[in-house]
From TrEMBL, chain A:
Tree of life domain: Bacteria
GO molecular function, one term: iron ion binding
Ranges of Basic and acidic residues composition bias in the record: 1-16
Residues in Aldehyde oxidase/xanthine dehydrogenase a/b hammerhead domain copies: 37-142
Lineage: Bacteria, Pseudomonadati, Pseudomonadota, Alphaproteobacteria, Rhodobacterales
Region (Disordered): 1-37
Protein name per UniProt: Xanthine dehydrogenase
Alphabetical list of Pfam families matching this protein: Ald_Xan_dh_C, MoCoBD_1, MoCoBD_2
Cited SUPFAM superfamilies: CO dehydrogenase molybdoprotein N-domain-like (SSF54665), Molybdenum cofactor-binding domain (SSF56003)
Automatic annotation (TrEMBL), chain B:
Gene3D superfamilies in the cross-refs: 3.30.465.10, CO dehydrogenase flavoprotein, C-terminal domain, Uridine Diphospho-n-acetylenolpyruvylglucosamine Reductase, domain 2
UniProt keyword Nucleus, yes or no: no
InterPro entries given in the database record: CO_DH_flav_C, CO_DH_flav_C_dom_sf, Diverse_Substr_Oxidored, FAD-bd_PCMH, FAD-bd_PCMH-like_sf, FAD-bd_PCMH_sub1, FAD-bd_PCMH_sub2, Mopterin_DH_FAD-bd
Species this chain originates from: Salipiger pallidus
Name the UniProt record assigns to this protein: Molybdopterin dehydrogenase
SUPFAM superfamilies in the cross-refs: CO dehydrogenase flavoprotein C-terminal domain-like, FAD-binding/transporter-associated domain-like
Family annotation (Pfam families): CO_deh_flav_C (PF03450), FAD_binding_5 (PF00941)
Stretches that traverse the bilayer: none
Key words of the record: FAD, Flavoprotein, Oxidoreductase
Length: 731, 340
């Protein structure tokens, strides 16, 4: 029986009382040695005997219809097994948590790069050769719209407002009206999307690289027109996701279709170029920020309007102004989103959708306002921190943003920041910048099973580990709750035959799957207390020994037959009564070359309060990785679309520039402030994976301005743009 | 990848005998194999030259250094003689690619690597360099990496090698072995052909020519050598603009400069006007800027490459500031010290 729990009120902080003392400890990942020695089998590694190899073929027109796929053009390729296409092929990966098939466009083409067929052969090499040779005829549409600035495709939402923005803006003593643009981004996970499909009768087993199995199972079944119960997905190790593996992908659907037809297993691994072409990217944005304030620095009006894009029939639109809606209060607030429908690679969630790009604009605008007012940027932020969500009036469940800003300023040496352009070392200008960090937090329905066998325990859930540390933290929570050394807890993930969890996305995995695991273990504690004849509060579990009611007993004696508990958790009243978000502050010091405009980040500090930290090491890695993403979005990362066809010209990692080691400062530091979020979930945690990005890039760009006067409105701030901005600023 | 024959050559003449139309030499393979996988290059035969003796050494040949065609980029950059006498070359090599690629990449292969124009890599898009006469997709396309000097209406692509820029600034010569004839030497700047109406023909090499070595002339005493590469991230990216300079000073004045520019032309770009404008001058930003302006009169830009004009000017100034000592405490400046 699954014990269900709704988060309707604050829960006792049990993890602060338990005796094992392992929650929060900076432990290594238990699966780490397997990964670094190549023994962790990723999706493409589990090659069944007799497997055939498939390669996806892309459309090479931006819009129109496929009129013919000429199979005779590849008939001479030795080992060819078939060319698969038809109504079940999917246009792109499903959006996160869709739970239903992605668009299946039949013979229609909606973007250059869309997968339109799968070529299968005895060897990967033959399949790839045939995929390149396959002759496809099209009926191409004229006048295709690939440019999001063309307004005839624009869909505009009504503004979301609080108070009267226009009146407050008009009444403000100082106003600012700026437009910033950000480049489209790729998740660029190291492992390309891969699937191995194998049928046994009507039952399909898919080894995939997927983040959210509970949903993926339904998406795959729906795509194939079968019952979800016929599908089992295995995804024990994932080589990075960052949102790109939230939904079922074309590689998985195509592999399953071909495997059923051929009656043998089929493996499909996307080439790096195909990953760029067809996997959901982050939209480009154009963002208009209007701020109004009084001379003393109190914000009166804040408006954040954005233009984003997606392909037709996709429900997702990057929630650009998400953080702007709660980070600072003002009398008048207004947020309008415009969505352009274009023939480009579809857009979806990429790490910190919304905040990752929205805060680049908001936090630069705040810096500009501080400058305009002659107020220290840290002070300006401190002056404008609301005590409740200004749009919804919900109180914050927990926020230490003010502490993060103050502590960060102190530790970073912010007082030593010089006026703009006044610090020069050799041919480099040097400057400092600051930005707030914020990312909303969620609890998503999740279930987990815990088995206590005596001196060891097993955790089972379909939760995934995309490199983030799920194995580590679920083991720690269980060990803590059951009083076992972590080495005695085995964590089994990534299998849809286990209880369904949130999956990895939106930074909610650790809190959601972690809470379910906690609750299952808590149920076991109740049984143990009963067996010990003591109350739950008297029970202490430590190193395999139970104590309570003046008794002491090894768990191995207390547990004869395995104790099994399954629990599930879901959001409840606290999600309405309170608003939960992670907060932090980023500080950056950069050097800008006086002549060439090259920017080098010299050091960065992120001070963050993100609820209870479950594992100090994996949490830190998440925060550091996030900050590096912030660096990429500010300085280096940019997908380029061909202006005619809309297809990606930057289709590999030589042309899409994620930060290299040399871009990342050695002095990159994260400090966590102690916090418990009682309203968030029963373990008082918050999401971690995305807060590090949110605002980090803005701190860097604000430092660029402080260094050399350049305010770069179009990101990333590549050397040419920095030079132009320095010229504009008279530097 | 298409099926191909593979031959492992033991001797130069054996290799040359296997070459010809639709055969390709393979050295490190770091560029060729990538292009074969995506069928941008589809040779029917690969001739592996890596087992041929005598191509792996760096030796002093009386005039300077002789660098065998198979010396890897990593070995060459680390060679103490190179670091000492031709630091520009070490720096340029280390500014390119990644450690893993440089371990595999060879001197000959580096010189002959193909352009990084994104349309050259995309067989769905017309490209005159791949298929002469098909058209040039880069023209109204994504043009950030294109050239601004020496292009034609048929091709706007830039040569991506950093090493070649250093070799051009150092006035190196390429030693070429033809099957029926003696080895000949060609100055590096004459190795490459401008695209004209045949952008597929990139060098003066015949299909069965093999590069056997590169000759570096002895550097002038006390030159200060700088390689400055500006790119879209700090490492592991091709140059937007790069500048290699070797400067000899005469007291406070510049005695002579030898200079080559990368990322801006279908070959390492050299312009005697730059060197003329600098010789005999007292170093200053103004003098350096004027020299850059001389070169820039030849520039022909697309909207996407307009930025290369100011960037080139500024990069040349920055490099010359380092080389002439105007830039205070500039990391990366090395004075060439010639062993006695
Ligand atoms: C991701 C990435 C980033 C890179 N970044 C940079 C960079 O920033 N700067 C830079 O300069 N380079 C860069 N490179 C390119 C790299 O330097 C080249 O790939 C390498 O130098 C090629 O050498 P190779 O020996 O592997 O050549 P191969 O791939 O073996 O051959 C290249 C070509 O040269 C021909 N060839 C080879 N040897 C001979 C010979 N002796 N005689 C006649 N023909 C010959 C081959 O037939 C082939 O056409 C990068 C490469 C990659 C993949
Ligand atoms: S610039 Fe040259 S390489 Fe690029 S598409 Fe045009 S012809 Fe091809």
């Amino acid at each position: 029986m699954t014990k269900t729990f709704r988060m309707d009120e604050a829960q006792p902080r049990l993890l602060d009382e338990t005796g094992q003392g392992i929650v929060g400890a900076p432990l290594d990942r238990p699966e780490g040695p397997k990964k670094v020695s190549g023994r962790a089998a990723y999706a493409a590694d589990g090659l069944p005997e007799n497997a055939a190899h498939g390669v996806l073929v892309r459309a090479t027109i931006p819009q129109g219809r496929v009129t013919r796929i000429d199979e005779s053009s590849v008939s001479e390729v030795a080992g060819l097994l078939g060319v698969f296409h038809g109504p079940k092929m999917t246009r792109n990966p499903a959006q996160g948590m869709a739970g239903a098939a992605p668009v299946q466009p039949g013979n229609e083409v909606h973007y250059h790069g869309q997968p339109i067929a799968l070529v299968v052969a005895e060897s990967f090499e033959a399949a790839r050769d045939a995929a390149q040779r396959l002759v496809v005829s099209y009926d191409a549409d004229a006048d295709v719209i690939t440019d999001p600035s063309r307004s005839e495709t624009h869909e505009q939402d009504d503004p979301e407002t609080a108070g009267d923005f226009e009146a407050a803006f008009a009444a403000s003593e100082v106003t600012l009206d700026r437009t910033y643009t950000t480049a489209p981004h790729a998740a660029a996970a190291m492992e390309p999307h891969a699937a191995v499909a194998e049928w046994e009768g009507d039952a399909l087993t898919l080894r995939g690289a997927l983040q959210m199995l509970r949903f993926n199972k339904k998406e795959l079944a729906d795509s194939l027109g079968i019952d979800p119960e016929q599908v089992r997905i295995l995804s024990p190790y994932i080589g990075g996701g960052f949102g790109s593996k939230l939904g079922i992908g074309p590689e998985a659907v195509a592999a399953a279709l071909a495997a059923r037809e051929l009656g043998r297993p089929v493996r499909v691994v996307m080439s790096r170029q195909t990953v760029f072409d067809t996997v959901l990217r982050r939209t480009e944005t154009s963002q208009r920020l209007r701020l109004g304030a009084d001379k003393d620095g109190r914000l009166r009006a804040l408006s954040h309007d954005d233009l984003v894009s997606n392909i037709r029939d996709e429900g997702f639109a990057e929630p650009v102004s998400q953080a702007s809606q709660f980070l600072y209060g003002a009398e008048g607030l207004s947020f309008t989103q415009t969505l352009a429908r274009v023939c480009r690679t579809p857009t979806g969630s990429v790490r910190a959708p919304g905040e990752a790009v929205g805060m680049l604009a908001l936090e630069q605008a705040m810096d500009e306002l501080a400058e305009e007012l002659g107020i220290c940027p840290v002070e300006l932020r401190l002056k404008n921190l609301p005590d409740k969500n200004p749009m919804t009036d919900q109180p914050f469940s927990a926020t230490r943003l003010a502490d993060c800003l103050r502590e960060g300023a102190e530790q970073f040496g912010w007082a030593g920041r010089k006026p703009m352009g006044e610090r020069r070392e050799g041919d480099w200008y040097v400057g400092m910048g600051v930005a707030s960090a914020a990312r909303s937090n969620m609890l998503i329905k999740s279930a987990a099973r815990v088995r206590l066998t005596g001196d060891g325990a097993v955790v089972e859930t379909d939760m995934t580990d995309i490199g983030t540390g799920s194995y580590a933290i679920l083991g720690q929570i269980t060990a803590e709750m059951l009083g076992l050394p972590v080495a005695k807890v085995e964590v089994r993930l990534g299998d849809t035959s286990f209880p369904g969890a949130s999956g990895s996305g939106g930074s909610f995995g650790a809190s959601s799957a972690g809470s379910a695991t906690f609750l299952a273990a808590k149920a076991i504690r109740e049984t143990l207390a009963e067996r010990m004849g003591c109350s739950l509060s008297e029970l202490t579990l430590q190193n395999g020994i139970a104590r309570g009611g003046n008794r002491e007993m090894p768990l191995s004696e207390l547990v004869d037959e395995e104790l099994v508990e399954e629990a599930s958790v879901e959001a409840g009243d606290t999600a309405d009564s309170h608003f939960s978000a992670g907060f932090g502050a980023h500080f950056a010091e950069v050097a800008v070359h006086v002549y060439t405009g090259e920017v080098r980040v010299r050091r960065m500090l992120g001070v963050m309060a993100m609820g209870r930290i479950l594992n100090e090491k994996t949490a830190r890695s998440q925060a550091l990785g996030g900050m590096i993403w912030g660096l990429g979005s500010a300085l280096t990362e940019k997908l380029t679309h061909d202006p005619r066809t809309g297809h990606l010209a930057t289709r590999d990692l030589a042309n899409y520039h994620v930060p290299a080691h040399a871009d990342v400062p050695g002095d990159l530091k994260v400090v966590f402030l102690e916090e418990r979020d009682d309203m968030a979930n029963p373990i008082q945690t918050k999401g971690i994976g995305e807060l590090g990005i949110s605002g980090a890039g803005a701190a860097i760009l604000n430092a660029v301005r402080n260094a050399c006067g350049a305010r770069v409105y179009d990101m990333p701030a590549t050397p040419d743009r920095v030079i132009a901005a320095m010229d504009a600023a008279g530097f | 990848m298409r099926e191909f024959d593979y031959t492992r050559a033991e001797t130069l003449s054996g290799a040359a005998g296997q070459l010809g139309e639709n055969a390709s030499i393979i050295a490190g393979g770091t560029n060729l194999l990538d292009l074969m996988k995506i069928q941008v290059m589809t040779p029917s035969r690969l001739v592996d030259i890596t087992r041929i003796d005598g191509l792996r050494d760096v030796s002093e040949d009386g005039e300077g250094l002789r660098i065998g065609a198979l010396v890897t980029n990593s070995e060459l950059a680390a060679d103490p003689r190179v670091r000492e006498g031709w630091p520009l070359l070490s720096r340029a090599i280390l500014a390119g690619a990644s450690g893993q690629i440089r371990n595999k990449a060879t001197t000959g292969g580096n010189l002959l690597q193909r352009t990084r124009c994104p349309y050259f890599y995309d067989t769905a898009m017309p490209c005159n360099k791949r298929n002469p006469g098909e058209g040039c997709s880069a023209k109204e396309g994504d043009g950030r990496m294109l050239a601004i000097f020496g292009t034609s209406e048929h091709c706007l692509a830039a040569h991506p090698s950093d090493m070649a820029v250093a070799l051009a600034a150092l006035r190196a010569e390429v030693e070429i072995c033809a099957p029926h004839g003696d080895a000949r030497r060609v100055p590096i700047s004459e190795l490459y052909k401008l695209p004209g109406d045949r952008p597929d023909i990139e060098t003066v090499l015949a299909p069965d020519d093999i590069i056997t070595a590169v000759h570096l002339p002895a550097p002038q005493a006390d030159t200060r050598q700088v390689y400055k590469k500006v790119r879209d991230r700090a490492s592991y990216a091709f140059a937007l603009v790069s500048v290699g300079v070797a400067v000899a000073m005469d007291g406070d004045r510049i005695a002579s400069v030898s200079c080559a520019i990368g990322g801006v032309a279908p070959k390492p770009w050299t312009d005697p006007e730059i060197e003329k404008a600098l010789a005999g001058q007292t170093p200053s930003d103004e003098v350096f800027g004027q020299a850059a302006d001389k070169a820039l009169t030849q520039a022909r830009c697309q909207p996407d490459t307009e930025f290369k004009k100011p960037l080139l000017r500024r990069t040349l100034i920055a490099a010359l500031r380092e080389a002439t000592g105007l830039a205070a405490s500039a990391p990366g400046v090395e004075t060439a010290r010639i062993p006695a």
